[in-house]
Design a protein that fits this description.
It is a single chain. 35% of the residues lie in helices and 21% in strands. It is of the alpha/beta class. It has two domains: 2-181, Leucine Aminopeptidase, subunit E, domain 1 (3-Layer(aba) Sandwich), CATH 3.40.220; 191-465, Zn peptidases (Aminopeptidase, 3-Layer(aba) Sandwich), CATH 3.40.630.10. The strands form four sheets. An eight-stranded mixed β-sheet has the order 7-8-10-9-13-17-14-15, with helices on both faces. A hairpin with an 8-residue loop joins strand 3 and strand 4 (71-78). Helix 4 runs parallel beside helix 5, helix 5 packs antiparallel against helix 10 and helix 13 crosses helix 16. The protein is elongated, with a radius of gyration of 24 Å. The structure holds ligand BES, manganese (II) ion and zinc ion (ZN). The site of ligand BES has 15 residues, from helix 12.
Length: 496
């Protein structure tokens, strides 16, 4: 999809489709539309409440009087008072999903003038939404049912004259890169599990990363054993397919402190011998979303040439039930020397993350952030749309929450008090891998904390937001590519 910025009167746009964005209250029409025949029609429809402007609402007018465009698509933006990068993304997604059902040569998208132009990153989020909305979950359909537009023309109206042209172009470029990164994360999550066994996923990641100019190291099982990653080896033991550990290095920040991103990469979670019921296993190909987000975020920051240092650590494995699978009561010796009694093989994420976190901490980063589809309990606590945030560092938490406020993605801080640690006491080893019935998201985080060596650290439990069980106008089923926008925003804020 070629994306370009045009300055042209809306009525003259020759495109088969012209998309207009409409905020909710008073149904404010773009200045250039207001006094036209189309404007009259839309005003009537607004008065009749046929059009409300709610987020993602779609209205089609074919053959709009006074406009050169073949058809007009009006997309709701929601109330102006709530307008943020999140609603811009949702509107972009909705319009693209609506129009991408068949191949289209060109689509024109007019930037609205009735929004608060000081809202940070809204143009980027809108474009990222469009890029994401042209891509669906139907990766293996013999007939593709989503088609990126050949050309997307972003039309800058008269209300935008105060925005310097280069700023809009820069935002559009950023949005395109971030949208592509979101799609990378979604595609990886949506890929069938047998097509992304750890070694294959590692090779796919190697290609993506080296194309973006990121240094890649892939460790095979032998190396993982030499490095004493007992947690990763324990989980991988039940699988025919060996584990991989991937290290991504992006160093363009000179002497500035480095940032570590750690991702859970379970390419299929059957639960192991503590087998999941079939319904709970259906979507467990997406249990590598943490790793996918790390790769996607690093691809975006590299393509944006951000002046920072980021290292990604990805622990990739299947969690299966083969004859050599770890058993309940087995004790694993982890990378940092701690011993862990395995009392539930379905609590595998924390075992592989423990090694990855210890190794990341050894390299002395200023901050560590891990992303993991870690617990169903986090979804019980916060629902399917909000990530659990756990941290030993107040400032770091606040900067991530600030980035969330800018992007509209949602995370909520949960406690990490020391009494939860008691729940992980084992009779035979240093700790056990499950904490009992209550507070499962917290005990999981408390487990991870013991492997970060006191470094400044955030754990994001993304079990909920990583995956959509159902779709609507503004989203698809399947992998979401959540937190790519927020992490890019967070890492950008570090360079200010
Ligand atoms: N991958 C799952 C968590 C998960 C559940 C992610 C649902 C997305 C949707 C994780 O490995 C797991 O199985 N966690 C267990 C932990 C329990 C055994 C302590 C869980 O949540 O049930
Ligand atoms: Mn599990
Ligand atoms: Zn899992």
């Amino acid at each position: 999809m070629i994306i370009q910025v045009l300055r042209q009167p809306l009525a003259d746009i020759q495109s088969p489709w012209l998309v207009l964005l409409l905020p909710e209250e008073q149904g404010e029409l773009a200045v250039e539309v207001r006094d036209t025949a189309l404007g009259g029609l839309l005003s009537r429809l607004i008065v009749q409440k046929e059009i409300t402007g709610s987020v993602g609402e779609l209205t089609v007018v074919h053959g709009p009087a006074g406009f050169a465009a073949g058809s007009v698509l009006i997309v709701g933006l929601g109330p102006t008072s709530k307008f943020d990068a999140g609603t811009a993304h949702a509107a972009g997604f909705a319009l693209a999903k609506r129009l991408a059902g068949k191949p289209r040569e060109s689509v024109a998208l007019a930037l609205p003038d009735a929004v608060d132009r000081s809202v940070a990153g809204w143009i980027s989020a809108l474009v990222a939404g469009v890029v994401a909305g042209t891509r669906g979950p139907g990766l293996r359909k013999t007939e593709p049912n989503r088609h990126p537009f050949e050309t997307l023309n972003i039309i800058v109206g008269p209300g935008a004259t105060e925005d310097p042209a280069h700023q809009i172009e820069e935002q559009v470029r950023r949005g395109e890169i971030v949208g592509q990164a979101i799609n990378l994360a979604r595609d990886l999550a949506n890929t069938p599990p047998s097509e992304k066994c750890p070694s294959r996923l590692a090779e796919q990641i190697r290609t993506v990363a080296s194309d973006a100019g990121i240094a890649v190291q892939v460790w095979d099982e032998t190396r993982i054993r030499q490095e004493r990653f007992g947690g990763l080896l324990g989980v991988a033991a039940g699988s025919e397919n060996p584990p991989s550990f991937v290290i991504l290095n992006y160093h363009r920040g000179g002497e500035t402190p480095s940032f570590a991103l750690v991702g859970k990469g379970v390419t299929f979670d059957s639960g192991g011998l503590s087998l999941k019921p079939s319904a709970s296993m259906e979507d467990m190909k997406s249990d590598m979303t943490g790793a996918a987000i790390v790769v996607a975020t690093m691809q975006a920051i590299a393509r944006l040439s951000m002046p920072i240092n980021v290292t990604g650590y990805l622990a990739l494995t299947e969690n299966m039930t083969g004859g050599k699978a770890m058993k309940l009561g087995d004790v694993l010796t982890m990378r940092n020397g701690k011993t862990v009694e395995v009392l539930n093989t379905d609590a595998e994420g924390r075992l592989i993350l423990a090694d990855a976190l210890s190794f990341a901490a050894e390299n002395r980063p200023a901050r560590i952030l891990d992303l993991a589809t870690l617990t169903g309990a986090c979804m019980v606590a916060l629902g399917p749309k909000v990530a659990g945030l756990f941290s030993n560092d107040e400032d770091f938490s606040q900067s991530l929450l600030a980035a969330c406020r800018l992007t509209g993605e949602r995370a909520w801080r949960l406690p990490l008090d020391d009494d939860y640690k008691e729940l992980l006491k084992s009779n035979v080893a240093d700790l056990k891998n499950v904490g009992g019935k209550w507070g499962g998201a917290i005990t999981a985080a408390k487990f991870l904390e013991q492997f970060v060596d006191g470094k400044s650290w955030i754990h994001l439990d993304i079990a909920g937001p990583s995956w959509n069980e159902s779709d609507n106008a503004t989203r698809d089923v399947g992998g979401t590519g959540c937190f790519v926008r927020t992490l890019v925003t967070l890492l950008e804020s570090l360079t200010l």
